């Protein structure tokens, strides 16, 4: 469990660094649309970092459930936000990795669906 929290904290720190970098250093480099895309990646990363902290501190989830949700979100952040960072920072052609961003979004969605399923299952036991 602590490895999930440590990795989550690292992702949170990285979101802050990248957000500040985008707001200050990239203002002159990226177009308004590119900067908006970059900010979306940072925002989605931070949203899921906050959820990951809650998930991993919540005592109602088993260790297995915490790990499953964490890995889904970790992969989702890596693919979704990571692909956008690559496209905007390294000028990787969006055409060459177009499928990665929505695939990352799918992992994020599956993470949320997993939590919904867990809570539905818990509510039926009551």
From TrEMBL:
Transmembrane segments annotated in the record for this chain: 41-58, 70-91, 97-120
Alphabetized InterPro entries for the sequence: DUF423 (IPR006696)
Primary location recorded for the protein, binned into one broad class: membrane
Gene Ontology CC entries for this record: plasma membrane
Keywords assigned: Membrane, Transmembrane, Transmembrane helix
Keyword Metal-binding (UniProt): no
Subcellular compartments: Membrane
The organism's place on the tree of life at top rank: Bacteria
Membrane topology: Multi-pass membrane protein
Family affiliation: Belongs to the UPF0382 family.
PANTHER family the UniProt entry points to: TRANSMEMBRANE PROTEIN 256
Protein name: DUF423 domain-containing protein
Species the sequence originates in: Polaribacter haliotis
Organism placement in taxonomy: Bacteria, Pseudomonadati, Bacteroidota, Flavobacteriia, Flavobacteriales
């Amino acid at each position: 469990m602590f490895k999930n929290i440590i990795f989550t904290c690292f992702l949170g720190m990285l979101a802050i660094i990248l957000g500040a970098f985008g707001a200050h250093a990239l203002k002159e480099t990226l177009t308004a649309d590119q900067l908006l895309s970059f900010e979306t990646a940072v925002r989605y990363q931070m949203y899921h970092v906050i959820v990951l902290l809650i998930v991993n501190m919540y005592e109602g989830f088993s260790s297995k459930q915490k790990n499953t949700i964490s890995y889904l979100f970790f992969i989702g952040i890596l693919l979704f936000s990571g692909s956008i960072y690559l496209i905007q920072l390294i000028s990787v052609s969006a055409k060459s990795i177009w499928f990665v961003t929505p695939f990352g979004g799918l992992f994020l969605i599956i993470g949320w669906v997993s939590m919904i399923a867990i809570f539905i299952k818990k509510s039926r036991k009551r």
